[in-house]
Specification:
Radius of gyration of chain A: 28 Å
Helix content of chain B: 40-55%
Number of strands of chain B: 0
Distance between the termini of chain B: 85 Å
Distance between the termini of chain A: 25 Å
Number of helices of chain A: 20
Largest sheet of chain A: 2 strands, antiparallel
Radius of gyration of chain B: 35 Å
Oligomer: heterotrimer
Shape of chain B: flat
Largest interface: A-C, 51 and 53 residues
Largest sheet of chain B: none
Shape of chain A: globular
Helix content of chain A: over 70%
Number of strands of chain A: 6
Order of helices and strands of chain B: HHHHHHHHHHHHHHHH
Order of helices and strands of chain A: HEEHHHHHHHHHHHHHHEHHEHEEHH
Chains: A mainly alpha (about 650), B mainly alpha (about 400), C mainly alpha (about 300)
Structural class of chain B: mainly alpha
Strand order of the largest sheet of chain A: 1-2
Number of domains of chain A: 2
Chain lengths: ~650, ~400, ~300
């Protein structure tokens, strides 16, 4: 801050601030102009109507008033009713292929890239900020390089996102013209704002990225960070606008029961499921973005030529993994909120999801969740390798593996078993008397809570791997931790057994104390552990880069699972509309109004996941081609505190 | 040639080609076996993985990309494989609902049956409501005993002095005074009175989670709602009130411009438009002739109820057809009785029997009767001979 | 070896697994630390794999279907992998013999490799052949055991909507339908002449059961009657929590009245030899026999509460 008062600098800084304000202002100008225009639109329509009446006299029909399907407000009808389509080439032009599948691929790819480029700037901003406030200069430099590395990956993805967006729009116009026309008649003001915001975001992103070197000192750095804030605001609003179209299709508002637009685009945007989806997507994007950056780091780690590179990318992968897992934890709660709102909007929709046609998809989600937890544990165990002193804890791994696997066996035991008639005969019934008991909810709740608790335990052990507590109450702390986890295990298992002896509607309530056990392990356990590690005697530094190749494949596994899960949940969200384009307003009368089998859906999801990753790996590879051989600063293997404990 | 001397390059070229062939084979196998329940799909997986690993080993520069891709293919395929292993069902979009034409012709039991079908079908009532005496409605009140209970509800103070977000169905509609009106009001205006404890969460029972069922998307017509109400009575062994009373009750609570028309449901669902077929082809012959509209104009010997029409000739075709085909006014090309009948149905004006009007018989039976119907009609008519007993239609 | 203890089976299974793994770890430790015999990691892993396979194949009775064992075995393999590769030291030890065979620097490893090079492709092709060869065994049936019932069923000219109908005999002392009357009288003596109506009806239902049903469904209602094994699949076992216990009483009424021929499309293939009992029993008798079946098995009929 001293520099602020140096005369020479001051003018330059002032100039740069002005420049930023002018640039951002210029970018926002079209937006600012367009907002009053939107407001006018409603009045204009009314005026036009009035004018028309004056000219033609009585012949003009009386203004039609419609009632909003969701909000119940009255408004002047300003659009045609939702078109009733039929299965023909006008409403549904087609190639010799299922149009819905084409849209599916286009949307999913756009979403994958879109989520990624929206998420990365958020943590770039955070990491840049951490770098700026970190006092340790070498650490600050490290954080700054990390942030720059992150944004570098997203810049190529950004243009791909734009291209895919174009592809998506054209696909809609070509394959679903009637539907698309209807949507644009309602959302055209929002769509214009969207385009302008996109321009603004592109501008900001390019200045932000290319100005990184030029704006790295003093006040300019803060200006640079401000750009990151703008960038993220634009990005988030963009995403929310796009979300509104998707959620309008699920829970329409701003139109009357016939689908006639009532002139207030805000109501159409702010429909019932908009905000729940916004929150869920924002968190989901962070997890997804973290997963991709971690995979990038893993890729660079695996193709690294020297120890320095390996150390850097090991650390980068760890940070990204940490971000991903940290945002993964609140994600189920956001999902719960979304689901609750779905039930509040239409119970029928909720029942279709959880108990009806789409319920099997949640079984697949269960497998994915299990895979995520196993992999997270595995990555943490592998991470112990880079710390001296970890041998003390490594011997517990086999027990934890055993617990995890046994729980996973219970978690995966199917309720309905697939078997040959001979096997059925041998078993003497569809239900197995021993293993069949694991097929029910009570056992599964217990299993998944133990899986999570064990993961927390792995994390605590990881935290204290290279430290020996020196606080006077260390002994009692350890006892407390033992009791905490032991108590949680006993409580969860006991409730799982007890669940068999009580009716189903009471059993639902048991999951609350189970989750409370799990969460108290997370919070209390971490807190005790952190306190105990204060001033602990280190047994050695974290040797970044000394991690196995397997751990990096674990990261690939996590990233692939995240991507798959996103594809799956997105499919569930979209297909819950069943045979409606716009729920209860515009019916899908194309030949593809049916809901596919889960097998087909899973094949499509896998295709999308692989298509995305293959193109992305290609992008990564391009990235390594382009990098000049920078002489890597000869840093010794620096002692970096594991970020898990430092922030 | 330099290329041929450069052995390592040649080797790499060879490996690259091999990899490409493997990938192409895998793609082709996938394409061929994609639809259908083939167990050969995993072969593609094996080929993909082998190709990527092989390329990864010999092309060091793309090693990580190749191994990473191979790994991801295995992971994604494992998830997809699991999903394919689960039971598979396709969710079909709901078919068009038949709308009621004239409910006054139905007996109370028939009307109740219709109402029951609507309750569990188009009306989707059973998603929230329960109907058994001992069941507890989690989402909506139990409908058991409603017919009796409704009379008490309308007497309640809490009913008369309601405090909901919408206290009357529309201005001037008033509130219900008896059970029939109560049911109508509840269907047309669920917010008018909310059963204690069943309001939308957080609204303190001032707002109902139930949609107005005469509006989209349910769009039940008044007659359909009458059928449902009838079922409410009949299923509990009570006598249903007269249809007209129930209709009046609904008209009290649904303003004229909101009343859905009987055809509305069909139009809205309208995929592919109306079914133009007059028959299914499976009806007993007398019904078939009636539905196919033959009996309006023709006397068909041997068919009950087809003996007093005189717009068209009596159908002793086995006798008349050979003569007519030889007539000089005949412009068709039939060479047998059967062909003649078919021709006459498809294109009636090819030959018009003297003393009957031209252009009287519709010429669209070719599109409104299906093959089975035509076959059965022709089969029967072609055996009718003047002066002989008609064949037994029950055997045909 | 003692069998599974009724009522404790799921927990017993977990406890046994725990015991096996404890013995295994302890044994390995004692051998290693006390006796100086170190068992190679690869051998340990193979042992765990085989032990898991053995346990699920032979210990659990009745035998598990292959699909479930496949899931379990995949999970066990994943677990073994996580365990051996969790620390670098163990992983290197685990890999050493494998790499030694691949390198084939000694005559022994050379021979092992040579044999493997012949055996592995052969067994792969053998497996492929077995997998793809047309087989004479019955195909796997994803048979829906409890297909979706119709909305209503007509028996003896009367219509019973399955959603709303109730057993006329499940009544308490006041003559009211009650979900709890069975629980209250489950230990009563059906032959007590002073028993309430409900118990009288249970007794009559029992008489009907033993005159008509027990030949197939067994005198313990466990689906192992005199003629049971003439059928494939064998008749429903009512003591199994997957049958009566998870069905509504009206569902059972429908299945008894209409039998195998009355199964809907979803029930394909209609592998049921159950006769349509409406041709032999009156409506009352059907309700009574169902009443008896529930009473005897002590399961309450399912009601549509929250899942």
């Amino acid at each position: 801050m001293k520099r602020l008062f140096e005369g020479g600098m001051r003018n330059k800084q002032l100039l740069s601030w002005v420049a930023v304000v002018v640039i951002v202002g210029a970018l926002l100008l079209p937006l600012v102009i367009s907002i009053p225009l939107l407001a006018q639109e409603f009045e204009e329509a009314a005026l036009e109507q009035a004018a028309a009446e004056e000219i033609v006299g009585e012949e003009v029909p009386v203004q039609q008033i419609g009632r909003d399907v969701h909000y119940g407000d009255e408004g002047i009808v300003q659009g045609p009713p939702a078109p009733v389509t039929s299965d023909n080439e006008n409403d549904y032009p087609r190639y010799n292929f299922e149009s819905r599948v084409i849209i599916w691929v286009a949307t999913q790819q756009h979403l994958y890239y879109g989520s990624f480029v929206l998420a990365v700037p958020i943590f770039v901003m955070i990491i840049e900020f951490i770098g700026m406030v970190t006092k340790d200069r070498s650490m600050a430099k490290k954080y700054d390089t990390l942030a720059y590395d992150f944004i570098k990956i997203s810049i190529v993805a950004y243009s791909i996102t734009a291209i895919l967006g174009g592809v998506l729009v054209f696909t809609f116009m070509i394959l679903y013209p009637t539907f698309w026309t209807y949507m644009t008649k309602i959302f055209h003001p929002a769509m214009h704002v969207y385009v302008l915001l996109f321009l603004a975001e592109s501008g900001t992103l390019y200045i932000y990225y290319y100005g990184w070197e030029a704006m790295k000192e003093g006040l300019l750095k803060w200006v640079h960070l401000t750009m990151a804030v703008f960038l993220n605001v634009f990005g988030t609003v963009l995403m929310m606008l796009a979300n509104s179209w998707a959620t309008f299709m699920m829970s329409p508002a701003g139109v009357d029961a016939e689908g006639q637009y009532l002139g207030n685009v805000w109501l159409a945007v702010h429909n019932h499921l908009w905000n729940p989806v916004n929150i869920h997507r924002l968190l989901g994007n962070m997890v997804f973005g973290g997963g991709i950056v971690a995979a990038y780091a893993a890729y660079r780690f695996l193709s690294a030529k020297n120890d320095e590179e390996r150390a850097h990318y090991d650390w980068m992968g760890y940070v990204a993994m940490f971000i991903a897992v940290a945002f993964l934890i609140p994600l189920p709660f956001a999902g719960y909120y979304l689901m609750r709102e779905v039930y509040a909007y239409r119970q029928q929709m909720g029942i279709t999801l959880m108990g009806g046609l789409l319920a099997w998809l949640f079984i697949i989600q269960a497998v994915l969740i299990g895979a995520l937890f196993l992999t997270t544990n595995y990555y943490l165990w592998q991470g112990m390798e880079r710390m001296r002193g970890a041998e003390r804890y490594q011997k517990y791994i086999k027990y934890m593996t055993f617990v995890l696997i046994v729980c996973f066996l219970v978690w995966l035991t199917p309720h309905t078993m697939v078997m040959t008639p001979t096997e059925l005969k041998e078993m003497g019934g569809q239900q197995h008397p021993v293993v069949g008991n694991y097929g029910v909810m009570s056992a599964k709740n217990g299993a998944v809570n133990i899986i999570i608790t064990t993961t927390i335990l792995s994390f605590l052990l990881y935290q204290r791997c290279n430290k020996i507590p020196t606080v006077s109450w260390a002994r009692y702390g350890n006892i407390a931790l033992w009791m905490l986890f032991g108590g949680a295990f006993v409580n969860i298992i006991w409730l799982a057994i007890y669940g068999y002896y009580i009716p189903a509607n009471v059993r639902v309530g048991l999951s609350v104390p189970q989750v409370v056990s799990t969460l108290s392990c997370l919070f209390i356990g971490t807190a005790i552990n952190l306190l105990m590690m204060r001033g602990a005697k280190p047994t050695g530094p974290v040797e970044w880069g000394k991690i196995s190749v397997r751990s990096q494949y674990a990261i690939f596994m996590l990233a692939t699972s995240f991507t798959w899960m996103m594809g799956l949940m997105g499919y569930i969200r979209s297909s819950v509309r069943l045979h409606w384009h716009v729920n209860e307003v515009m019916r899908d009368n194309s030949p593809w109004a049916f809901t596919h089998t889960i097998g087909f859906a899973a094949n499509m999801i896998s295709f999308n996941v692989l298509f995305f990753w293959v193109t992305l790996l290609f992008v990564f590879w391009l990235g390594t081609l382009g990098t000049k051989k920078v002489v890597v600063e000869k840093v010794r293997v620096v002692t970096v505190p594991a970020p898990a404990t430092s922030h | 040639m330099d290329l041929l001397k450069n052995k390592p390059l040649l080797f790499k070229l060879w490996i690259g080609l091999l990899g490409a062939i493997l990938v192409l084979l895998a793609l082709n196998n996938y394409r061929v076996n994609f639809s259908g329940n083939s167990r050969l799909l995993p072969v593609s997986l094996g080929l993909f993985t082998a190709a990527t690993f092989m390329l990864g080993i010999y092309f060091q520069k793309v090693r990580v990309v190749m191994h990473g891709a191979a790994f991801m293919i295995v992971v994604a395929a494992a998830f997809a494989g699991f999903a394919n292993w689960l039971p598979q069902t396709i969710g079909e979009p709901p078919a068009l609902e038949e709308s009621v034409e004239d409910i006054t012709s139905l007996s109370p039991q028939e009307l109740a049956d219709l109402g029951e079908k609507l309750t569990f079908g188009k009306g989707k009532c059973s998603l929230c409501h329960v109907f058994g005496s001992s069941e507890h409605g989690e989402r909506a009140p139990n409908m058991f005993g409603l017919a009796a209970r409704a009379n008490e509800i309308v007497q309640l103070d809490s009913y008369k002095n309601r405090d909901t977000i919408q206290t009357v169905a529309y201005d001037g509609s008033g509130i219900a005074e008896n059970a029939v009106e109560y049911m109508a009001e509840s269907h047309a205006c669920p917010n008018c009175y909310v059963s204690p404890g069943y309001g939308k969460r957080g609204t303190n029972d001032r707002e109902s989670p139930m949609p107005a069922i005469h509006k989209p998307p349910l769009s039940l017509t008044i007659d359909e709602m009458v059928a449902i109400d009838t079922w409410m009575y009949v299923r509990e062994g009570l006598d249903a009130p007269p249809i007209d009373d129930m209709r009046l009750a609904y008209e009290k609570f649904i303003p004229e411009d909101e009343r859905p028309q009987a055809s509305a449901g069909g139009e809205e669902a309208g995929s592919g438009g109306e079914n133009p077929l007059l028959t299914t082809g499976n009806e007993p012959l007398p019904d078939l002739f009636e539905k196919a509209q033959c009996t309006i104009c023709h006397i068909i010997p041997g068919i009950p109820g087809a003996d007093d029409a005189d717009f068209g000739p009596e159908l002793y075709v086995k006798t008349s057809a050979p003569k007519r085909m030889k007539d000089k006014g005949y412009t068709g090309a039939a060479s047998s009785v059967q062909e003649y009948i078919l021709e006459s149905i498809m294109d009636p004006n090819l030959y018009v029997v003297p003393d009957f009007d031209e252009d009287l018989m519709p010429d669209d039976f070719g599109t409104t009767l299906n093959a089975k119907t035509l076959f059965r009609i022709i089969n029967y008519i072609s055996q009718l001979e003047e002066g002989k007993t008609p064949p037994d239609y029950e055997k045909m | 070896m003692p069998g599974f203890i009724d009522g404790m089976m799921p927990i017993q299974l977990l406890a046994e697994l725990l015991l096996i793994i404890a013995i295994f770890i302890l044994g390995a430790m004692i051998l290693d630390k006390k006796m100086g015999i170190h068992i190679p990691m690869l051998l340990q892993a193979v042992f765990v794999f085989i032990a898991g396979w053995w346990y699920y194949k032979y210990r659990i009775d009745p035998p598990l279907p292959f699909s479930v064992r496949a899931i379990y075995q995949v999970m066990i393999s994943v677990g073994i992998f996580m365990w051996v590769s969790s620390a670098e030291k163990g992983w290197i030890e685990f890999k050493r013999p494998i790499i030694a065979v691949l390198d084939a620097k000694t005559p022994l490893t050379w021979w092992v490799r040579a044999v493997l090079l012949v055996v592995l492709p052969l067994s792969a092709s053998g497996m492929t052949y077995i997998n793809l060869a047309p087989s004479l065994s019955e195909p796997i049936e994803l048979r829906t055991v409890h297909p979706a019932p119709p909305a209503a069923v007509k028996v003896h000219g009367k219509k019973f909507p399955l959603q709303t109908s109730e057993s006329p005999f499940r009544i308490d002392e006041n003559g009211e339908y009650s979900d709890h009357v069975q629980d209250a009288h489950v230990m009563d003596n059906p032959f007590d002449p002073d028993g309430i109506d409900y118990m009288q009806n249970v007794k009559e239902g029992g008489e009907i059961f033993f005159q008509n049903c027990h030949f197939c469904h067994g005198d313990n209602l466990n689906g192992r009657g005199l003629y049971a094994f003439a059928f494939n699949p064998i008749p429903a076992n009512f003591t199994d929590p997957g049958t009566l216990a998870q069905l509504q009483e009206t569902f059972v009424f429908w299945r008894v009245a209409k039998g195998g021929p009355g199964l809907p499309r979803e029930g394909f293939p209609w592998a049921s030899a159950m006769p349509p009992w409406e041709q032999h029993l009156t409506t009352e008798e059907i309700w009574k026999v169902i009443l008896f079946e529930y009473w005897h098995t002590k399961y309450p009929p399912r009601t549509w509460g929250e899942e």
